[in-house]
Amino acid sequence: MSRDAATTIIQTLREHGHVAYLAGGCVRDRLLGVAPKDHDVATDAPPDVVQKLFRRSQPVGEAFGVILVYAPGINPNADAEPQRGEASGTDRPQRRFVPIEVATFRTEGVYSDGRRPDEVNFTTAEHDAQRRDFTINGLFEDPLHPDTPNPDADGHGVIDYVGGRADLESKTLRAIGDPDRRFGEDYLRMLRAVRFTTRLGFTLDPSTAQAIRNLSKFLSQISRERIGGELQLMLTTPHFAASADLLQQLRLDGPTLNEDHLDAEMSVLTRLSPDAGYAAKLTAWMIDRHGLAAATPARVRRWRKALCLSNDDTDTLNRILRQLHAAEDWATMSVAKRKRLLSMTDWDQTLLVWRAMKRADAIDADTPALIEDGIGLAPAPLVDGADLIAMQLKPGPLFKTLLDQVYDAQLEGRVTDRQAALAWVRQSASEG
């Protein structure tokens, strides 16, 4: 486990006269009763000392004093192990090594670009805690306490210089120190505040919330890739609707999506199933903000640019919207058109959005009969292009029309076998 691996690193650092603790999210999660995804170590040992003490290590943020150390333990991700030459020239280690980030305690200077500090200085644990984002992320833990007593630790081995324990107990997300300064150091922290608040079910501290409202316009200075990545983290959790709503309350919706702030009711997104994928959630949010009629390819292009959406997510979003627009005509659709719609790629995602819009009753009622009619939604075609070529028909507009029409006839049971389908094509071709 990564905790055991991190504890081994801390033990080694202690044996060489250094202060070292577990730091940040892993401490927070343990106190909340959540299994941490990974464990980070913070220490007063300079980066070069860390590398000397741990043969299997490599710098990953040397300017910030961050070294990746491969410590003994069960590594669930074999690909995370260093290759030859990556870790001080050593051979690839066995699979029982876990990558642990070891960071030197530091203070940070001015953030001229609103993302990275212009200057980093190594310091003590207390000063290191003060430069972190939120109080609940500014906690340290001594995993060797109480076996090796630490006067700075409480009964759980936790070292708290910023009031994080009290905020965990009151379920409050609070910026460390001056919130204007904390967010001014990295404006993406405003989105992180939303994600932590909704994911943990916390309340946002009023002064922290007001600072975000005051600084929300500066989010546009952050790269669209970072904004999109943070939004995807929010929307791919069960708390996606609450996240979108809080973004709006804090006036972060506009700079996030690169459009005007709106006081929209999150009705579709709130009703959307948690089984919906990222593109379906974006679709629901777009409909809440602009309505289905205005959820157009042009708006998808704008959101793609604003959020750096992948090609796959963009294609899925466009497909869902096309299918939603098509579903509006369900009542007048032929059986063949209905079956074609139900067989389309991503229809399952479209249906989740349609249900969240409270418009799926007719489709849900009609679908079982279409599936169980003895034909099915998407049977293998009785006739294909090779059959038409064998009839001396030339590929072209009529070619595709005939294939579509004979397949519609098959879907509706008007032709039931191959011979009947071929006869249907011959007659239609002669009439065409």
From TrEMBL:
Entry protein name: tRNA nucleotidyltransferase/poly(A) polymerase
The family this protein is said to belong to: Belongs to the tRNA nucleotidyltransferase/poly(A) polymerase family.
Species in which this protein is naturally found: Algisphaera agarilytica
Lineage: Bacteria, Pseudomonadati, Planctomycetota, Phycisphaerae, Phycisphaerales
Needed cofactors: Mg(2+)
Residues in Poly A polymerase head domain copies: 20-174
Pfam families noted in UniProt: PolyA_pol (PF01743), PolyA_pol_RNAbd (PF12627)
Signal peptide: none
Presence of the UniProt keyword Transferase in the record: yes
InterPro entries: Bact_CCA-adding_enz_type3_sf (IPR050264), NT_sf (IPR043519), PolA_pol_head_dom (IPR002646), PolyA_RNA-bd (IPR032828)
One of the record's GO molecular function terms: tRNA binding
Key words, A-Z: Magnesium, Metal-binding, Nucleotide-binding, Nucleotidyltransferase, RNA-binding, Transferase, tRNA processing
Origin superkingdom: Bacteria
